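Write out the 3D structure for:
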Amino acid sequence: MQATFPLSIYRADLARIVVSVFQTMLELEITATETAGAPAADGLTAAVYFAGAWKGAVLLECTRPQAFEFTHRLMAIDAPEAINDDVRDALGELANMLAGNLKSVLPHGIGLSMPSVVEGTDYSLRVCGGSLIDRMAFTGELGVVWVTVLEMLGEA
């Protein structure tokens, strides 16, 4: 039987995790915000999936310039000028860190997938069987980034 996601503690934990990962790994101060709008149409999305006692996914969405700066800060290299394997690896690793830390508040026995990164112009990513639990915006000196948590419904 699939466990229920702990909605009552989830939002505060997710915000704490995102702020901590960005501060520790990127030396970026960000805060949760109630901004209106949506992620950029020409951005990137990194995803990590949960499987086991609870099934779902965590998505990190950002703009290309943000992805380039995250890569620079995470890998201590010059900021890329185009999407390349370093950018994909950096975003995948950030999503993996978010998912790994979020795993600590989920039921025991959950595994993580390898990260995946989607890029392009005006794309959409649909996690089949996924139901939106929450989408949170975080803002800092580089603008707004989005973190989304989805729950898989049924026996998907």
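The longest helix spans residues 7-26.
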